[in-house]
Amino acid sequence: MAHLLELRNRLMWAIGAFFIAFLLCFSFAKPLFNLLVQPFTWAVDWAGMTDRKIELIYTAPQEFFFTQIKIGMFGGLVLAFPMIAAQVYKFVAPGLYKNERGAFLPFLIASPLLFLLGAALVYFFFTPMVMWFFLSMEQVGGTGEASIMLLPKVSEYLGLIMTLIFAFGLVFQLPVVTTLLARVGLVTSQGLADKRKYAIVAAFIAAAILTPPDPVSQIGLALPTILLYEIAIYCARLVERQRAARAAMAEADEASAAASDPEGDA
Fold first, then answer.
1. CA-CA to 173 of 20 to 30 Å: which in 29, 113, 149, 202?
2. φ, ψ for residue 153 (rounded to 5)?
3. pTM, rounded to two decimals
4. How far, in Å, CA of 199 to CA of 181, rounded?
5. Whole-angstrom distance, CA of residue 59 vs CA of residue 63
6. Cα 163 from chain centroid?
7. CB contact at 8 A, 100 and 150
């Protein structure tokens, strides 16, 4: 019962933090959406359409309202993540040894930083690149040709950028997850290296599922995934070296203790 009460308290703190962050982000939903539209503006500049007015539309009366709710939830989750992660750690930490808590805490800090790194890569590079690719399909129109222009819906544009941010943010967790698995002995660097060819195929399959059906975003997600897989192999190798060094030090201490107390061994 004590554990259930502790879990309830931690959940209440996490949900409360998310609700407050949601209200804050929802109250600034329009400025936040304008901030998310900035990559589209950069894509227009890359396409050489400097005189073009940035326009997005919504075709249902309630569409933009629900889009603002999604922005509030998305921003609320990002803002409240440190509190949510802290509550998870506080619930789990009493059941861990001191050395386990010390090993777990750096990953708790590295995880949101890597997620933000992936999100920044999406915001400053891949979203403008994807929108530039879509803008290149426009048709100016003329004799015998219709004028075809890109007018994104607010909900679909938000869905696109949120999908890319979550996809890249999750992929950037690969070194953290792999290092944790290596610490507990579930994976090895050699095993990861042997499965490299399968990981490359899986990276392209995951990119095809998680991103829009265009080659720019799919290749843009697959290549960093492969690079992060190589980084994960290196992190696992570092963990194994540290484990071997600790084992060698422990053996040396035991040998030293045995040499200094021969009568005790007898």
1. 29
2. -80, 145
3. 0.78
4. 16
5. 7
6. 11
7. no
